[in-house]
Structures are given as structure tokens and as C-alpha cells.
Amino acid sequence: MPPDTPIILTRRADFLAANRGLRVARRGFVLLAHPNDGKGTRYGITVTKKIGNAVVRNRMKRRFRALLRDALPARGLADHDLVLIGREGGVERDFGDLHRELARALEKAALGQGDPPRSRSGRHRGKPKPGQRSGGQGSAGQRSSGQGSSGQGSAGQPSSGRAK
Length: 164
Description:
Number of helices: 3
Order of helices and strands: EHEEEHEH
Strand order of the largest sheet: 1-4-5-3-2
Radius of gyration: 24 Å
Strand content: 15-25%
Number of strands: 5
Distance between the termini: 74 Å
Largest sheet: 5 strands, mixed
CATH class of one domain: Alpha Beta
Structural class: alpha/beta
CATH topology of one domain: Ribosomal Protein S5, domain 2
Shape: globular
CATH architecture of one domain: 2-Layer Sandwich
């Protein structure tokens, strides 16, 4: 393999490290670029289940691999890890548009002109941390209808589960 051939990222730690780097968002994808201390040009592709079923995700990954095969030898950043994250509109976008978007994103990354960091406000990611409330319900997660957990109303008869 020639020394300038890009290497594929496979380790989760490398993807997480790239997430700490520069972020350039485009309509069809987000490009992450992070220096890798002389390990050469490496790339990875991520397409989540939010994008579609396995057929759709695999099609998007094939398109991204073809884009990177064309663009990285000429425009790739030396000694950087590059990760393409698929976005919802990316699979339907014209291949030429994606190619131009990737070229522009690589130029911006080379100049160090990333997009501003994402704000975390208003977004809930994953499970709440211990001691953190999940919101939505009371502190113990019970209904506030005044009934106990027995499912019976105040007269000892089964309730319909609705507050009266």
C-alpha cells in the first residue's frame, strides 16, 4: 500500500477523538477533522439508524466511500483523522453536489474554519446521570391523581386509571 493511501478508522476511540476536532456541516453530511500525531490520513464513515433502514444506510456509506476515494488523495489533510457523518438528506443528494460539498468542507477544514460548536441546550442525550431528574413526571415517577399503587379509588372500587 502506498504511503499516501488513506487508512480506514475502525476503533471507537479514534471516532471519539475525531469528534473533539473541527466540525464542518454540509447539507448531506458533517465532516469531522482532528490531527492524529503523524499517523497519516485516516477516514471513517458513520451513518445512524435515524437515516433509514440497512439498505439506505449501506447505500449512503458506499456513496461516501466513493467520494472519499476521489477526494482524499488530492485534497485530504495530511496527518488528520476525517469522519463523515451522514445526514438525512444525504442519500438523495446528487453525487456531484456531494462531491462539491466535500471539496469545500475539506478546504474549510484545511484553513481551520470549522462551524461553531453545537449548543447542548434543549437536547436530551441518553439516560440521565445519577442524581439528575429525567423530567416529565413527579419525583418518584408516579401519577399525581392522588391514588395509591393499588389501582383502587377512594371507595375501594377499581378505578379507570383517570383522575376524576
